[in-house]
Write a structure and sequence with these properties.
This protein is mainly β. The chain contains one helix and 14 strands, in the order αββββββββββββββ. The longest helix has 17 residues.
């Protein structure tokens, strides 16, 4: 099966399963399913699809207590990527909350799978997140802000900083002691309650040209079920 269609089958399968079993969930569980088509898969300022179009699908389950779990899949380089994640959102007060969780990044048929833990402080002004990868020792820090602009239009701002770990790298490796910054701006417009189109721009400072995404325009559409 091609690298494009494997994640597509996963995404459609997850959506079908969620729709078929939604009525079985108790009232304090909420299920969210999304399917996205985009011109590029950019994560933390780096393209995971060699700047090629992708299809992505996700299923998230959240409990009223604050616990949540989900799975996300995308086409892209090689055979794509599948992520599992789970966490808990603890409300400190009516304005502040902590989101603590872990994620597993799996690349079918490849190596370099990663597991990371994260902590996010959610405030009325910005979300502040710190992430640590246990396989390689990478650290990633980010600020995210969503700004409503109109009834159906919003803007999402992102700023990130990564320093590569040294657990598995020799001093001659390109990532040894390396760091970079990334930023993006994205606009989302709701066509309906279930469909959103988005457009944005992603930039990062990185001397590894293989993953360069400087000046890339991001376009796509997301459907929820």
């Amino acid at each position: 099966m091609s690298k494009f269609y494997t994640p597509l089958v996963l995404a459609l399968g997850l959506t079908s399963y969620a729709q078929a079993t939604e009525s079985q969930f108790v009232d304090n569980l909420e299920v969210t399913n999304t399917l996205t088509f985009a011109n590029n898969y950019v994560t933390r300022g780096i393209s995971g699809s060699s700047n090629e179009p992708v299809i992505q699908g996700a299923m998230d389950v959240a409990h009223s207590s604050g616990a949540y779990a989900g799975v996300w899949a995308t086409s892209g380089d090689a055979r794509g990527e599948i992520d599992w994640y789970a966490g808990y959102v603890y409300e400190l007060n009516e304005d502040f909350a902590l989101d603590v969780g872990a994620a597993r990044f799996y690349y079918p048929g490849e190596t370099g799978h990663q597991t990371e833990g994260y902590v996010t402080l959610m405030t009325p002004w910005v979300k502040v997140t710190a992430r640590h990868d246990w396989q390689y020792g990478h650290n990633y820090y980010e600020l995210n802000k969503a700004i409503p602009l109109a009834d159906r239009l919003d803007m999402q701002l992102h700023l990130g900083y990564k320093n590569y770990g040294e657990k598995k790298y020799e001093t001659s490796h390109w990532a040894y002691g390396k760091e970079y910054a990334d930023a993006s701006v994205k606009f989302g417009y709701k066509l309906s309650d279930k469909h959103t189109v988005f457009a944005g721009y992603s930039w990062h400072e990185d001397d590894n040209d293989d993953h360069a995404t400087e000046g890339k325009v991001l376009l796509g559409i997301t459907a929820s079920f």
